[in-house]
Amino acid sequence: MADINTCPPLTRASVQDAAHRISGHVHRTPVLSSKYIDSVASTPQSPESLKGTEWEGQEPAKPRLCLLFKCENFQRIGAFKPRGAFNALLRFTEEQARKNTASELPVRIISHSSGNHAQAVALAAGELGLPAHIVMPSISTPAKIAATRSYGAEVHFSGPTPQERLKVVDALMSDTNFHNVFVPPYDHPDTILGQGTLGLELQNQAAEILPEGEALHAIMTPCGGGGMLSGVALSCQGTGVKVFGSEPSQDGADDCRRGLLEGKRIEKVSSLTIADGLRTPVGAIPWSVISDPKHVAGVFAVTDDQIRRALGLVLQRMKILIEPSSAVPLAVALYNEDFRGMIEREQGIDTTFNLGLVVSGGNIDLKRIPELIEL
Amino acid sequence: MADINTCPPLTRASVQDAAHRISGHVHRTPVLSSKYIDSVASTPQSPESLKGTEWEGQEPAKPRLCLLFKCENFQRIGAFKPRGAFNALLRFTEEQARKNTASELPVRIISHSSGNHAQAVALAAGELGLPAHIVMPSISTPAKIAATRSYGAEVHFSGPTPQERLKVVDALMSDTNFHNVFVPPYDHPDTILGQGTLGLELQNQAAEILPEGEALHAIMTPCGGGGMLSGVALSCQGTGVKVFGSEPSQDGADDCRRGLLEGKRIEKVSSLTIADGLRTPVGAIPWSVISDPKHVAGVFAVTDDQIRRALGLVLQRMKILIEPSSAVPLAVALYNEDFRGMIEREQGIDTTFNLGLVVSGGNIDLKRIPELIEL
Consecutive 10-residue runs of chain A (375 residues): their mean pLDDT? Predict the structure, then answer.
């Protein structure tokens, strides 16, 4: 990767540069809406449904929501990750060219992932003519291994724990016969700025879609490592569009929300939430953005049961496939009374709150759909 | 319904009139494509995969296909049926107004269906301010009954057989306190012309999508009662775009294909194919169009296993939900060597055959996805 000291500053202008850089390599994914889901979101929850929650006995909030779904499930590899991977690798090749210091040693792109990041790096490296070496746990599904290989990457296997994975990465990185370049999944400015490009697109698409005179009020994204949330927050800098994060609460996977309360990043999470893309704690560089209230106006959590219901609603009504992590922002909009109450207070009289929801990906295990949804 | 003798002729111009009539009531659904599925369709099948089929030992065909998916799964109620329902009911109200013979008796719209047609009639009647009475088998899923009621229709229950359903319909129709109007699911010119409007849209959208100088060569649709296939065929009249039908072969559900071979419509089918929207035999009026080789250039069949594979491919790669019936045209394009060989012969040297595939709907039973797909 490009040396972190030479990286562009974490600003909206840098996200715009990234968008220019990766255009032609990624899709401008569509923004979809559902009148039915808007009507569900704009109907107060029943007092009964709040029983047993922290909001029991409270009067249900009455937000009026218009939801715009930014559909990165239609992105290449089925998730937003190629934005960051292309930005990182293109920045690397630009820097090599500018310095005119192309090393004598052959370049190797190295990364590790059990999921979408592996395929994104494999795709970007392959398309830019760089050999990719991806470390994957040997228990990864054959489909994921085959997909990573199909982009031309060499797959190296490790044991299932993060420690075992990093050991294999370290071995690759220390091979001095190569110029080894590591691409981290979220904890790097180039990755963050690349992921943020989807926020710019959503702002432009909302302006095309919304009636004359109406504006996008806010965007809510899922939050795992925080690369995308921080990038989207930067993309909204100075626009007046608020940015929110959303997490699963299962087994404490809401590390970002809890860290904000404690004023300190939580560095370890061990959760088996069905939102498997969000089991990671927030990285240090994303945290530097997210923990600044000027950038992110709040982070909200939902239960796995609420994620199942939101996921079922999207599949049944919108006829698109999304992964459980991508149902988390909708679950917050539908079921989190703190969020809904805040929207009710913020929305003007007789107006609707226009909320963009980032659908991060569509790589759901099709054979497990019945256990992942609640209808 | 409008008296059949006063119906517009079965021509492309009548489909254009229908499109004008129903615009504003139905969505112009998107046309999607998948480079990956194009590459699969443009790769010859392996000789091994033809073992045990009628093409065993034959050299696999080498078509080059560009597939354009017309996505009626994103249509209102999740399927194409509202096109015909709106056209039929709007024609009825226009005729009443023109004749100035609105009866003294209150109008009731009556239909029967266990599936998409019920909801389409309920939606159209509700939106046009007409009371709808829908006969459904009492074994219908609660979700379908609730959906039909949610459009304001009154649901009447019957036993599971077609005979039992028709008995309840007859009882409703013979109530002389009302002006009862029956809306058939496919065997009526107004329905056929309404469904055909998706063919016009696809022709226009293909012209927008395909590179300068390239044209849509053909459209393939699923074929159940034949209302949509015949309507799409009429929409292509005089354009040079060929039209093909596709059916499941399970338990002889390929009645249209077999009828064309025998030169005679097959009136009875009893099949439990997973393509449950295509278990119906072709109706008499659709047959009058489909059996004319000037309108429909061929009808092809695939097995349920092939439908499962095509369905899995769409869900996994395109990230959209479609019902099993909607995977039938793709299954023909991927696995039917008669069709593929014909395309190979028809396509020009070094050119690609641009084929529109109609995705009829997305109302798949989410809880049954694992048994409905093969990955």
Answer: 81 98 97 95 96 95 97 97 98 87 83 89 96 92 86 93 90 95 93 98 97 95 97 98 98 97 96 93 97 98 98 97 98 98 89 96 95 96
Q: Specify the length of chain A in residues.
A: 375
- Minimal CA separation from B51 to chain A, in Å: 25
Q: Which of A169, A122, A173 is nearest to A144 (CA)?
A: A122
- Domain co-membership, B242 together with B227: yes
**Contact list, B367 vs chain A (CB under 8 Å):** 369-370, 373, 375
Structure confidence at residue B144 (pLDDT): 82
Strands A154-158 and A132-137: parallel
Among B356, B331, B338, B194, residue whose Cα is nearest residue B275: B331
Q: Which two tokens stand for residue A241?
A: 């569009």
Question: B117: how many CB neighbours lie within 10 A of its CB?
Answer: 26
Q: Say if A91 falls within a structural domain.
A: no
User: CA B333 → CA B35, B47, B62, B67, distances in Å?
Assistant: 15, 17, 12, 9
Residue B69: band (very low, low, confident or very high) from pLDDT cuts 50, 70, 90: very high
Report the chain B residue with the minimal C-alpha distance to residue A144.
Answer: B316
Q: Are B65 and B355 spatial neighbours (Cβ–Cβ below 8 Å)? A: yes
B307 and B247 together in one domain: yes
Residues of chain B by 3-state class (helix, strand, coil), percent to 5: 45, 15, 35
> In 10 A of CB A320, how many CB atoms?
24
- Average pLDDT of span B128-150: 90
Q: 10 Å Cβ neighbour count for A70?
A: 28
A/B interface, count of CB pairs below 8 Å: 51
Which residues of A make CB contacts under 8 Å with B?
A: 30, 73-74, 78, 143, 312, 315-316, 319-322, 362, 366-370, 373, 375
Q: Has B113 been annotated as catalytic?
A: no
Q: Which domain holds residue B133?
A: 81-186
Residue of B nearest to A323 (CA): B319
Least confident of A207-216, A307-316, B107-116, B196-205: B107-116
Question: Residue A109 is encoded by which pair of tokens?
Answer: 């792109």
For residues B104 and B20, membership in a common domain is answered with: no
> Measured between alpha carbons, how far is residue A109 from residues A118, A214, A270, A305, B117 in Å?
11, 45, 29, 39, 54
Q: Is B70 a catalytic residue?
A: no
The continuous run of DSSP H or E covering B158 comes out as strand B154-158
Token digits for B274? 């997973």
Amino acid at B270: S
CA distances (Å), origin B162, targets A128, B113, B169, B175 = 60, 10, 10, 20
| pLDDT value of residue B100 | 72
- The pLDDT confidence band at residue B103, using thresholds 50, 70 and 90, is low
The residue among B315, B318, B319 with the most chain A CBs within 10 A of its CB, best to mutate, is: B319
The total number of structural domains in chain B stands at: 2
Flag whether A100 is in a domain.
no
- Number of alpha helices (DSSP H) and beta strands (DSSP E) in chain B: 15, 10
Domain assignment present for residue A241? The answer is yes
Inside any domain, residue A303: yes
Residue B286 predicted with pLDDT over 90: yes
Q: Which residue in A92, A129, A104 sits closest to A1, CA to CA?
A: A92
Q: Is the pLDDT of residue B182 over 70?
A: yes
Average pLDDT of every residue of chain B? 94
Q: What is the pLDDT of residues B120-130, one digit of tens each?
A: 999 999 999 99
Model pTM score: 0.94
